[in-house]
Structure formats: structure tokens, C-alpha cells
From TrEMBL:
Gene3D superfamilies for this protein: 2.20.25.10
InterPro entries the UniProt entry points to: Trm112-like
Family: Belongs to the UPF0434 family.
UniProt-recorded name of the protein: UPF0434 protein KSE_29350
Lineage: Bacteria, Bacillati, Actinomycetota, Actinomycetes, Kitasatosporales
One Pfam family of this chain: Trm112p
Natural source organism: Kitasatospora setae (strain ATCC 33774 / DSM 43861 / JCM 3304 / KCC A-0304 / NBRC 14216 / KM-6054) (Streptomyces setae)
Length: 60
């Protein structure tokens, strides 16, 4: 399930305020920060982005 485009236009990384890109891999749905020095990956649970830095993971 993809997030609406209008929502992706306004969502930003809470850590660095860079835009987020939507990523879907299998059933995993995530939002990745586009900031060069940040790159945090935020989960999307039941269609709701969890934009908490404590819940994000560093890219592998």
C-alpha cells in the first residue's frame, strides 16, 4: 500500500528536515531520508508513517 503523493510532499525527516523517499521491499514499507549525512529509515505500520527518531534505523 503506497502513501498518497500529497502526503509524501509534506513529510520530512524529523532529524535533519530533508525530504523522505518511499521504499517498498516485499511486504516491508519504509520511508528513507534523502539527506546526505542522515539517511535514517522510518517504518510505515498499517499505512501510518512512524516518524520517531528512536524508531528509525540507520541504513545498512
Amino acid at each position: 500500500m503506497s502513501l498518497p503523493s500529497f502526503l509524501l510532499e509534506i513529510l520530512v525527516c524529523p532529524e535533519c528536515r530533508s525530504p523522505l523517499d518511499e521504499e517498498t521491499e516485499g511486504e516491508a514499507h519504509e520511508l528513507r531520508c534523502t539527506g546526505e549525512g542522515c539517511g535514517l529509515v522510518y517504518p510505515v505500520r498499517d499505512g501510518i508513517p512512524v516518524l520517531l527518531v528512536d524508531e528509525a534505523r540507520r541504513p545498512s
